[in-house]
Amino acid sequence: MAIATTLKSFLDEHGVQYEVVKHPTTPSANRSAEAAHVPGDRFAKAVVLENHGRPMLAALPATRRLQLGRLHHELGEHVGLATEDEMRDLFPDCERGAVPALGTAYGIEMLLDDSLADQDDIFIEGGDHHSLVHLSGEAFRSLLGEVRHGDFSTHV
User: Per the confidence metrics, is the pTM higher than 0.85?
Assistant: First the structure.
């Protein structure tokens, strides 16, 4: 499988340079970073959330874990994790568990953990369990649009 068609179209439409990095099939973002020899703090994993029926996507490093309590505090509102069914509907061209941390490609509001805000390079899932997309940090952040930032993760 190539990278997800929605993601590829979005990147191409925005004229962003990117590189597809192949790696052995892995079950998680942390393992994907290891398999591709990519620093985990530069691998933006996606956590899909739901806020009163509205989807949101939080991007945070593979080396960190989302802290819902901190996120609630940052946002001033309560959000929960999306269900598998919701994720399948939102990301129909992605394999389960391989959602790209670029919700804007899918029309989904983004939240960016502060720990990714200054990275020079960013790697994201390509939509399957054996492809990563490598972008400059500047290109990644430019694709996020009006993104909310916050300190809502902690090291694993």
Answer: yes
